[in-house]
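Incident log, entry 3
Record: NBD/HSP70 family sugar kinase (392 residues)
Problem: checksum mismatch between cached and fresh output.
Input:
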Amino acid sequence: MPDAPGTSAGAVLALIRAGEATTRAEVTRLTGLSRTAVNARVAALRDLGLVLEGELGPSTGGRPPVQLALDTSAGVVGTVALGRSRVQVGVCDLGGTLLGHVEEPLDVTVGPDRVMALVVDRLRAVLASVGRSPEDLRGTGCSMPGIVDRDRGASTATPLLPSWDGVALAPYLSELGAVPAVFDNDVLVLALSERDGHLRHHTDLIAVKASTGLGVGVVAGGRILHGGRGAAGELGHARSAAAGDLPCRCGERGCLETVAAGWALVQTMNEQGRSVGHVRDLVALVRSGDPVARTLVRDAGRRVGEVLATAVTLLNPTAVVIGGDMAPAYDTFAAGLRETLYANATAFATKDLAILESTHGEMAGLVGSGLLALEHVLSPAYVDRRLAHAAG
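Fresh output:
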């Protein structure tokens, strides 16, 4: 007979990870299991290498209790952030701490074969650099631009990545071992990266990724919204009055991206005779005080604020978090965004609204992808399957 919900070994691990149960007595109280059942579950988790016992806690009379904790050193997860123009690869411990990472400039439109071969090679290198091997890998999380079919682990219906459409990516990572690989959209992963940051204080927030493209990750009641077909958050392709009939790289016209995304700002700079190769170069000019760059980025913030105001009015978040390649120019971009967001959203929705910089900056994609992997490999269902396999 299967365990009742909330009483399996995997569920016990979830309580330990959350800090809700640090002793066997607390597990017994929270689950209603007998002491014998709790001992069996803790022993199974210990044998799987997931739980540490030790470091005696304070005594309340009698023998001090033995504390339980997740063994964050019991393995690692790979973390991959695929951007339009660069690839970041890293390794996290089971607590989500980034142990090491590398970054490579690469245009992902070259296709999955070349990109994923590089990812596998760099993941091997990072594992070695932190004293680990592929045998220590428990899973890999990967973020990527565009709409992602999470069940298949593939990009889908993303006009800018036609060579990736429908290509399952997990098989590429299987070279590193038979462990799970999970995938999600880069903007939603940005929102997930705030799990140990702004989400501690704001369970309803909108994370804006202002980079080569534009998108938002919506968190409602602590849950990230994916939408019916996984396309939630495509803010950059919402219509903007400021864009008029300008052609967008997605094939449509009048998208917000045409007046506010990094690719459009770079294009504008080059049309004015300023040699800029990437939005990161533009941001560097902003930080050096270049007046033209500052005006462009502030205006981009204004355009985003105009469209975002409707989402803020509808969803009533308590925070808007700014991330992506424009985040280092946060003061300039956020100043423009505040101007139009507050002017166009309802006063009630913006009364206590916080506009914040992303917690992890340039590392947000790697931190979020690591958490994506950990949510899977440490989930009660997956842990219970591992235990069943070990016992069978």
